[in-house]
Amino acid sequence: MIQSKDDFFELVEQIQNSAYYREPLGFGIARVDLGQKSGRVLQATFPFINWQENYGSAAIFQKALQETGHIIPLDESEVVFEVSKNFVAEAISYCTPWLDEAVGDAHKNVQVMKYLRDLPDEELANYRVVFLFEDAAPKSVEAVYLKLYALSSGKAALRSLNLDGAFGVLPNVAWEGRKPYELEWLRDNELRLKMEGAYPNIDAVDKFPRYLQHIIPADNTRILDAAKVRMGAQLAAGTTVMPGASYVNFNAGTLGPAMVEGRISSSAVVGKGTDVGGGASILGVLSGTSGNPITIGENCLLGANSVTGIPLGDGCIVDAGIAVLEGTKFFIAPEEFKKIKEANPEWDAEYKELFKGIELAGLSGVHFRQDSTSGQMKAFRSCKEVKLNEELH
Amino acid sequence: MIQSKDDFFELVEQIQNSAYYREPLGFGIARVDLGQKSGRVLQATFPFINWQENYGSAAIFQKALQETGHIIPLDESEVVFEVSKNFVAEAISYCTPWLDEAVGDAHKNVQVMKYLRDLPDEELANYRVVFLFEDAAPKSVEAVYLKLYALSSGKAALRSLNLDGAFGVLPNVAWEGRKPYELEWLRDNELRLKMEGAYPNIDAVDKFPRYLQHIIPADNTRILDAAKVRMGAQLAAGTTVMPGASYVNFNAGTLGPAMVEGRISSSAVVGKGTDVGGGASILGVLSGTSGNPITIGENCLLGANSVTGIPLGDGCIVDAGIAVLEGTKFFIAPEEFKKIKEANPEWDAEYKELFKGIELAGLSGVHFRQDSTSGQMKAFRSCKEVKLNEELH
Amino acid sequence: MIQSKDDFFELVEQIQNSAYYREPLGFGIARVDLGQKSGRVLQATFPFINWQENYGSAAIFQKALQETGHIIPLDESEVVFEVSKNFVAEAISYCTPWLDEAVGDAHKNVQVMKYLRDLPDEELANYRVVFLFEDAAPKSVEAVYLKLYALSSGKAALRSLNLDGAFGVLPNVAWEGRKPYELEWLRDNELRLKMEGAYPNIDAVDKFPRYLQHIIPADNTRILDAAKVRMGAQLAAGTTVMPGASYVNFNAGTLGPAMVEGRISSSAVVGKGTDVGGGASILGVLSGTSGNPITIGENCLLGANSVTGIPLGDGCIVDAGIAVLEGTKFFIAPEEFKKIKEANPEWDAEYKELFKGIELAGLSGVHFRQDSTSGQMKAFRSCKEVKLNEELH
């Protein structure tokens, strides 16, 4: 048993210099929901995650695994082990100097160990030790969830993680609140449950859970309908997601306070101060764009029922009801062209009457409009300053 | 008591030749929720339904009804009886040879009878025997539900059933999960419930329940928000309904894997491989069309925030943000007209510059667009092949 | 103790003539949910509210407050007191003549007192006496809720109440059904709750509750998704709110039966018989309009995915997919101008070819359309009569 903090730090150094230690990208202990029929993992709930941090705890956990016969292969990008009584006992024995201090925000990994120590043995089968060593395509439900937590907690940047194949890894389940049901189990038990009046009230059937099932947003963030934000989305403090036609998919979201009344498709990112109007669509790589993820800059206004299929810089306006797609042709008057160039000195373009949407990608200060007298699509220098309503909605 | 399977088959034949037997279109036993104030039926939950099948069970149930004094009128399109202790005893006595085998997927009607046999007598008032003999306008809540089950389970084709007057038959109730409350009862008890902190959390007020309150979708079907699909909708395996601006009404849905991010109004049907983009509207006979239900073919793309008010064949594209209505005039260039004719040899049209939407109804391979330089609506031969993202969203 | 009804009326008159009595705009007793960490009020549930009515009960409550040491300042626009045992005893003693009659719809304030009388003392901390004397900016959570109740119950007209600063007064909380959680408390307890598998299923994070968490709609009103209507909205009997892209914000709603498949932004009001099509947006003062709240008249049709940023009179049609904004220019043919003038004799305009949207604000019988052959926006006299489908959806 480790008795002093100095001994603890020495032990950690020793472990980190040992052959079996691998520095993790992220790790944590998860509580898992198991399939009612298959017994496979349906959902992993992390009380918190470690992401490029807390390497001392990582070392301790790895030693405890090693000592209890759980070998971490050197060539795997991730590992998942069932929590065992011995693992907990070992880990706790190394953490003795911290046990009393581990409350509130301090030493959360130790808090988790204390919690596991006090559990009846048979409950341990519901917990997993999860390590992610590289950002490879995730192979386990637990690894996918660890990455979704990293994105949604803001510890990893949007689009920074490899989620290839995540749809294949996650099982499609029926959600009654936070509880996932295997569809096959529901089928097997449908007759009985319905006759008994005990059939569950299913909120959704999906591979992904909802953001609010796992994440506590910032104090000034609002999500009026939990169904609108998928786990893996990232919402900066001060973001409001209204319940009309809005939606924020995984690996998409906002970088600052923003009003979201429209759709932020997977891979799309919206800057601070931007207003995504009611029913506005920002296309994503999974549908609509030609594979380029869309970034919308700061203080933009995407009008109600507009569609944006190109990246925008700061201070742009897309008028209500129009579609700005890669192939849409916009007329630009010579004087407006000059002003747009001034606002975008790095823009290397010669004047011509018509520009395709893709040629205007990423420019700041552009106002996109359909001329109501001619039906022609036009772009010009935006002159209104976009400001989010301070009180929001 | 019937002792052997042969005796059973003989009995069934006997019944089917008797004067009182009527071959049903559909039948089943439902568990019902009764009005807290009125005692009338608010919801009928079928553990499963029989639809043009299992006539042996139908015969047995009819004899058991007959023997216990429940007369089935010969001129009614439907009947509903409260389940009685004697009815169950009779039915069970005919089913003796199957009692042991009736587990899992086998002999579900017998399983239901076994379940009812083991219930305390006073519980039987919550169950109903429901027979539908013809596809007439439904008269009872139970008959409406039986038809909605037939549609949503895929046992009856969309638009194939008579639902006239269903809105009049179903009571409007407040739903707390799967539990319906009578509004009048809530009013009577509002003061007490609120003072006690026991006021229910109402999810919806509607005549129809939600699809997922009664139906288990296929393993690869996803519905990210249960509120988005009404009971009576039909979703083919592989359909994904996203939570943004989407909605699938009763008697509407998909015939194959499809991505649904828009609205499929009542009576509208979408073919396999089609992508209903974010906020796209397909109009229905209850609103928007001139009474003709809209079918969208296979592998079509309805762009984000588009509106489609005419039927489409296969491989059509409606650009984001535009409305294709019966009266919308589309310019077609002579060479595009030729190509569209080639793709639609059965299309009997002479060339002209402008075609109304209704004149293009049902054609395959048409791309609808608004010219961004002139504002003119145009139709031409689509050249992109629409493919659903394999991984979907 | 007051023994007779005459004594009661005399007492009321006495109180109303006393120096401390203040005639309230609205008042009521609320059950409150208290912050798990801060103890502050998170939500106030009124079993019913008194709004410019029941001044006898108001007098009684004020005397009971006065006699038990709760002084009502003469210069405050609102007061909130914790319900005390003595207050209840006093109030009950004045109401003796009504105690037996107070059941069902009769004497609801007395019913509330009886309920409080029978509560264990320690429960009283969850109840508040709330008085609103003037329509000033609300200062307490209870006062905001009282006003939202007044709006949603239809006792106060939409836009008639001062809600300035309501967003600042209401705490942002996580809702699990009707139960609000303080976000800070959730953070403090996240680790434990997740380890225990007891983490709540959060439906929304917002300052406002949902309409259906507090209000029982009329028998023929339907709200297919509770998330779509915020508390403080007003829905006239016969209104249907579909679950696609719809939304009704606080201080917005309908004045008669209406079909709502689109967004009614805060401050927007929709007249009877009007159909707000799928995805249609009516802009609000918090976003989109230049500060003028929008009223839509009766029997209008706002087409699917249309955007309306100006007020409309009766019988107007906005075609699917178009945006009618203050600055949109509409061509009007001379003969159509004449017809529109006939339908709007009070309209004081000279003929010109192009009218801005704002110049057409509030006119009746106008049809707004984009010409599909030229892309030009046009306005003309509407000739279709808009009728809501009798059976609705």
Describe what is shown at a glance.
The structure is a homotrimer of 393-residue chains. The first copy, chain A, has 393 residues and is an alpha/beta fold.
Structure description:
- Three copies of one chain form a homotrimer.
- The first copy, chain A, is of the alpha/beta class.
- Chain A folds into three domains: 5-171, Alpha-Beta Plaits, CATH 3.30.70; 176-206, no CATH class; 211-381, 3 Solenoid (UDP N-Acetylglucosamine Acyltransferase, domain 1), CATH 2.160.10.
- Chain A is 22% helix and 21% strand.
- Chain A has eight helices and 26 strands.
- An eight-stranded mixed beta sheet of chain A has the order 9-10-13-16-19-21-25-26. In chain A, strands 1, 2, 3, 4 and 5 form a five-stranded antiparallel beta sheet that branches.
- In chain A, a hairpin with a 6-residue loop joins strand 1 and strand 2.
- The radius of gyration of chain A is 25 Å and the shape is elongated.
- The mean pLDDT of chain A is 96.
